[in-house]
Specification:
CATH superfamily of the largest domain: von Willebrand factor, type A domain
Strand content: 15-25%
Order of helices and strands: EHHHEEEHEEHHEHEEEEEHEHEEHH
Shape: flat
Structural class: alpha/beta
Number of domains: 2
CATH class of the largest domain: Alpha Beta
Largest sheet: 6 strands, mixed
Number of strands: 15
Length: 345
């Protein structure tokens, strides 16, 4: 059994340009066709330019796109895990539920509540050893972003993609997030903890009751309040990531989002955990992780691919061959190639 991964997976986004290239190519071919028609009927023009071949242009473009695909995959560097080892790990299962509602864009905690939370989670992942981690995101609804895992690289990759645009429904469904986190744990004897990171604004559902139910299953629920007591406006960001103003109510007043500390304290108390308020010097994860570290760690088996072998060279080699082939294929017909009938008219 082999495991495939990409060392530089972010480069695969370049494949999204392929439809754009196809559209541009089709537009260029249509433009060329219209240009020919301005000079007369194609049946007559084809006699005047007998070496022109539309099929060759299509073939060259197809080969070029294949080369592009192989080149992008090669740059992303696919790697194969070649040695599967079973090792004994000792740790705790942690599910992090991160609020991604628009109020988390507020900048009372720099650079923003959400970005500060993501940075703290990333630092937490860097400090893990043997523990398993999973990520849930929530706003008006909760979604499982990353199932519980010991693959810290995957955890950081998924974390990097999180933004307020990832959940379309606004709100703060903390209760649903806690319930989903409880159901995401394996049915085992591992020590388990849920960390809720939110400003608690526009709170919906039965979060305190869900925290109590989690505690009954020996799952501790911790809460981190993101935001300062005085609150802050909610930036409006365009699709380019630029701030264009602040959210206003129907009367035209700037909306100020404030931390709901009371509710978060109640959640932590019901969940047999602690509540910590984030500020500009600390996001609070360190204190909570110290509490979690004091929990009894359980041994469990974990399969690990210890060696990964690069496979980029094969894809780069194919890309070079295809680019060479694209150069060999002429835009126009030749008497030599016509003998072999490689291309149509």
């Amino acid at each position: 059994m082999n495991l495939l991964r990409f060392e530089n997976i972010e480069f695969l986004y370049a494949l999204l340009m392929i439809p754009v290239f196809i559209i541009i190519f089709i537009l260029m071919m249509n433009w060329k066709k219209r240009s020919f028609r301005k000079f007369g009927e194609w049946q007559i023009l084809s006699q005047l330019i007998p070496f022109y071949s539309r099929s060759r242009a299509i073939t060259k473009f197809f080969v070029l796109m294949l080369a592009y695909i192989f080149l992008v995959i090669g740059i992303a560097n696919p790697q194969v895990g070649s040695k599967l080892q079973e090792v004994e790990r000792k740790g705790i299962d942690i599910m992090i539920a991160l609020d991604v509602s628009s109020s988390m864009l507020s900048e009372d905690i720099k650079p923003s509540r959400l970005e500060r939370a993501k940075k703290s989670i990333s630092d937490l992942i860097d400090g893990l050893s043997g523990d398993r981690i999973g990520i849930i995101i929530f706003a008006g609804r909760a979604y499982l972003q990353l199932p519980i895992t010991t693959d810290y690289a995957a955890a950081k990759l998924f974390l990097s993609t999180i933004s307020t645009d990832i959940v379309p429904t606004q709100g703060t469904a903390i209760g649903q997030a806690i319930e989903m986190a409880v159901n995401s744990f394996d049915d085992n004897d591992h020590s388990k903890a849920i960390i809720i990171i939110t400003d608690g604004e526009n709170h919906e559902g039965d979060a305190v009751e869900q925290a109590r139910l989690a505690a009954e299953k020996d799952i501790d629920v911790y809460a981190i309040g993101m935001g300062l007591p005085e609150g802050a406006p909610i930036p409006i960001v365009n699709r380019y990531g630029n701030k264009v103003g602040y959210k206003k109510d129907r009367q035209g007043n700037t909306v100020i989002t404030k931390l709901n500390e009371t509710m978060l304290q109640q959640i932590a108390s019901a969940g047999n955990g602690i509540y910590v308020t984030a500020n500009n010097s600390s996001a609070g994860l360190e204190k909570i992780f110290e509490e979690i570290e004091a929990m009894e760690k359980t041994e469990f088996e974990s399969r690990v691919f210890s060696d990964y072998e690069d496979r980029f060279q094969y894809f780069i080699a194919v890309a070079v061959l295809l680019l060479t082939l694209e150069l060999i294929i002429l835009d126009r017909k030749s008497k030599w190639s016509d003998k072999f009938r490689l291309f149509g008219h």
